[in-house]
Amino acid sequence: MYAQCLYDWDNLAEIWDLFEDKGFSPELLAPEVDRLGTPVAVVGCGRGAVLQHLQRKLGPDHAMGFDISGEMVKAATSRGCAHVYLADPDDPIPEAFRFASILVATGVLDPLEPEEIGALCRALRRRLADDGEVWIYAFGKLGPNWTVAQTLAATHPLGIANHLLFDLYEDATRTSTGELLRRLGLKGRDALIAKVWLAGIDRLVKTISAAQASRDTEASLAFVRRMAPSLNRRFESAELMDGARRGGLQTVSLQTYEREGVLRLVCRRLSLP
Known about the structure:
Elements: H1 9-12, H2 26-29, E1 40-43, H3 49-58, E2 63-67, H4 70-78, E3 84-86, E4 99-104, H5 114-126, E5 128-139, H6 143-151, E6 155-156, E7 159-161, H7 162-174, H8 177-184, H9 188-211, H10 217-227, E8 231-233, H11 237-246, E9 249-257, E10 262-269
Parallel strand pairs: 1-2, 1-4, 2-3, 4-5
Antiparallel strand pairs: 5-10, 6-7, 7-8, 9-10
């Protein structure tokens, strides 16, 4: 397991509503809902934004949510979602269930090494109905956030080096954005990309500060640093397909969402000897 890619999900649950429109979201899934066979499982359902959308569209008994965080499960239940279950990280769907569609949310695979991704896919395969599909969502090495990381030299083989980006933000707050850009030698489009990113982090920190009834932005940034992994995982499509294959799943389609920076793999059972 890649410890540097782990999230503190229980503590993030209180502010996760700020991020539910990123990655695997109701907006991303909405055009595809009619393609899903039922019942549907959402692995990594979080605070329940996608699960609620599915239950409203398909009916409350045709979509179920699973999450390894007790706080996330409580939050999803509190928002009105039915059938939300605390999951075992190694085998997230209990033996009693079978699903026509299993959706794996962005973030679920992030700390997993290749063999562990294969093991998870194998566990999901056991809960898949005949002719069912597993839809795997993961952040890829594409989109605006990846461009920012490349521009600011904050990439890593596993993804985006959050700690380096936070260091740059702190530098900008101590001096100025202009001074930081000059020191980094950024001009033109690269400078604009950096400015937009810095403004976005500033809005996030101030939003968290207000939500916690505190105007101390330094404490809010420390909170974000503590909750977020030092590395934000970004996948190559080949990594996802390899993990699926290790777990006895065959890729039938790959979709890229450039604006969101998301990859979606649709898989079916691989015929095993």
